[in-house]
Automatic annotation (TrEMBL):
It comes from Amycolatopsis saalfeldensis. GO terms for biological process: DNA-templated transcription initiation; response to stress. Pfam families: Sigma70_r2, Sigma70_r4_2. This is RNA polymerase sigma factor. Residues 31-95 form the RNA polymerase sigma-70 region domain. Belongs to the sigma-70 factor family. ECF subfamily.
Amino acid sequence: MTDAGPLGADEAAFIAAARSGDAARFALFTERHRRELQVHCYRMLANYEDAQDLTQETFLRAWNKRATFKGQAALRTWLSRIATNACLDFLEKRKDRTPVPSGLEDAGFEVPYLQPYPDRMLPEDPQESVVARETVELAFIVAVQHLPPRQRAVFVLRDVLGWPASKAADALELTVASVTSALQRARVTMREQLPGRRLDWRSPATHELSDDERGVVKSYMDAHERNDLDGLMSLLREDLRFAMLPEPGTLITTAKDAVDGWVSGGLFRRGKDDWRCAATTVNRMPAAALYLRAPGDPEYRLLNLAVLRIVDGKIAELTGFDVTGQPWLGLPPTL
């Protein structure tokens, strides 16, 4: 996401639309960038619905500031700057948008406002998609939330979008030295939050699921539909990290404790023993949509979404989401 040199055709046409005051023509140009702006806001906020709202706020601010666009920067750069500052304003007002202690020793923090991101809403631009998987995976999004808001903005602009320090400084009204210092601190935190992960977010990365991942998802769904607790347990790493959102206090860091909690909650007993599942992906990660049929109900109804991180053929992280009443995921409500 770099600035244009000479005034580009899009920028020139955008300036003409802005000067004419034609809101419809203006929207034609801004709408092209909706998906990448929405992902940008999601990286900042970890919440799909908030990202939708802040993207709309970005377009409103862009319209109100249209006279300030002179074409010195690419249109997408100008819009990203507005979106970043809209997110920072949001975070300044919403003090609940920070990780909270999990209450478990050495288990870290929970992010109860975290929501999954539907893959169908990811950018179609191939240049954006090559880094999409690792920079929208849940672990990455959660790690970013541990950064203070302005550090977060510096990190996303510099290390994800590849902006030079001078441009990030201008967008955030900081000095280049302040941006450089903030980025160094952000990188330390990201290394702490993502140990063992590659941290070169700007180099190409695959976003396709492996055959291994697809096989584990199929086995996970089969175990659910067969009420096979042993089969389910066999798919989990002993050091499984499990969370069920948006419920607070559900972060668990062993497979045994997770399974014990599922059993005590009635999993595979009457009323929670008639499951159908559908494979899907969110955040470029394998996932299973879980549908439960209650006694006497003719239909299976969407209940939870299990998002899996699979390492060496085992489930290392399982993040469950209550997805009732979330049509934006694009999942059928019943089977």
